[in-house]
Amino acid sequence: MNTGGRNLSLADLRGRVTIVDFWTFCCINCLHVLDELRPLEEKYGDALVIIGVHSPKFEHERDPQALAAAVERYGVEHPVLDDPNLTTWDAFAARAWPTLVVIDPAGYVVATMAGEGHFEALDAIVGDLVAEHIADGSLDTTESLYVAAPPAETTLRFPGKAIELPGGDVLVSDSARHRLVRLAPDLKTVVGVIGTGTRGSADGLEPQFNEPQGLALLPAAVAAEVGYDLVVADTVNHLLRGVRLADGAVATVAGTGKQWRMDNGTTAALDVDLSSPWDLAWFEDKLVVAMAGIHQLWYFDPLARTAGVYAGTTVESLKDGPLDQVWMAQPSGLAATDDRLWLVDSETSALRYVEHGVMHTAVGQGLFDFGHVDGPAADALMQHPLGLAVLPDGRIAVADTYNGALRAFDPQTTTVSTLAADLAEPSDVIVLDGKVVVVESAAHRLTVPDLGEAAVSGRHHRVTRKRTKVAPGALRLEVLFEPAAGQKLDYTYGSPIQVTVSADPPQLLASGAGKGEELGRDLVLADGIGQGVLQVVAQAATCDAEAEHPACHLTRQDWGVPVSIAEDGVRALRLVLRA
């Protein structure tokens, strides 16, 4: 894709520095890397070729039309290879989304990196390669391999979230066009627009956004005191923005604009770093924020002007319990009642809720299980849901995005049913004047579907990637990491290394699970478990070694490594964070 119909081979890339980016469009870490690559594309021009290799996790992501929509939705301005069967993924021995491979102009792999936070390292490597091959005359910058698709002609483009405004109008985050659009109750007539429509973060009466998503109205008394009516999750800017509806004025109310890398010890809203806020809901006298980028819920108190962690540890997985101990995976939608905060956890395809300081899972089985199955909640399956709403009868309507369906969970009977199907990537649900309205994101519209009550019994999908054979018993885990050129490990806040290990099923590990401060760890696999997934979260903090005002950096990655137990398996598992 993005080549004007031309097929590219590795030979076509000779003479250029190439970054191969293995990604999948459900993955928030992959979306972060797209934004890390943009300034490199601008800086090096045609001396650098980025090839996105889309190696999907979810079944929906194997659809080439869905991939084409994602390439447009996220502004991918380089060639993309569709790799639905993970053929190229396996050829490069990728283990994690995202994985980056740097190839020099002679065709040799010179660096491999997993996860996000590699901008400085990539800049240094690419800069050195460009300089070296300019000097020897082997750099080829004769033509661009990227061919842009023609612009679309629709009122909205990949809308994300919507809310009803006082008076009955609907405000929509027009995500791919970086603005907010106010629609009349007919859901078609444009009443007004907030935002210039270009990527940016400018405040004031000509504001800019960057792929905005969630919207939340403040209670009237709170709005009167703080001077703005609603808050926007300005996702790619890593900001929360306050909007005054009377004139469309926008002000940044939380976030620095820098992506969160580590706790910086403050709760002052304008001094904390955020990471891809995706949705918002008023609950317990504050806004709760779905912080998709770090798998947490945060709070924002507009009156106190504070923000911080509400729930979650940053580990990407599914675990219930007290809020400071739970694991989530890209929470992307929120809806509140008086006593419960409901959320959809997109990467675990789960519907969950918070009640009395404890998180529970209503529907969902983990990172690697998904499908379209109705019936008892314990057996029901969804596929990467992004939005939800509380219906007047108390049921929870879920925008089951990758199944293209509107689902309903009944808390009284703990059952799941399908209300509507054949929707184009529904991303949010609202109730407007008694009608259920769906944000049909890939159809670029808001729609009122015909509702029914069906029981779908589809397939149970489980992520199946090439399994690594490991020997039974003792297994050595090693995370390989080397600080980027000009950086050193940063001990400012204690150990710069953090590695968390878990397993699916949990019984796979007899010992070695939990959090530690070393890159290496000895695990013991339990007897009687034939296969499973080792889940590893690793991060390394570094800082500039010689700079007068050194910048801090955090390299982070979550791996889900499928393993099978065999006598001829390996006894050491090595994961590359940066090498």
Describe the structure.
InterPro entries: 6-blade_b-propeller_TolB-like, NHL2_NHL_rpt_dom, NHL_repeat, Thioredoxin-like_fold, Thioredoxin-like_sf, Thioredoxin_domain. Pfam families: NHL, Thioredoxin_8. Keywords: Repeat. Strands 33, 35, 36, 38, 40 and 41 form a six-stranded mixed β-sheet that branches. Helix 1 (28-44) packs parallel to helix 4. The chain has five helices and 42 strands. It is 10% helix and 42% strand. The longest helix is centred in the N-terminal third of the chain and has 17 residues, at 28-44. It is mostly beta strands and 579 residues long. The two termini are 29 Å apart. Strand 19 (331-336) and strand 20 form a beta hairpin.
Task: Give a short overview.
Helix content is 10%, strand content 42%. It is globular.
* Biggest β-sheet description: 6 strands, mixed
- By helix and strand content, what is the structural category? mainly beta
Number of helices: 5
Report Rg: 23 Å
Distance between the termini: 29 Å
Mean pLDDT: 94
Protein name: NHL domain-containing thioredoxin family protein
InterPro entries: 6-blade_b-propeller_TolB-like, NHL2_NHL_rpt_dom, NHL_repeat, Thioredoxin-like_fold, Thioredoxin-like_sf, Thioredoxin_domain
Domain Thioredoxin: 1-131
NHL repeats: 383-412
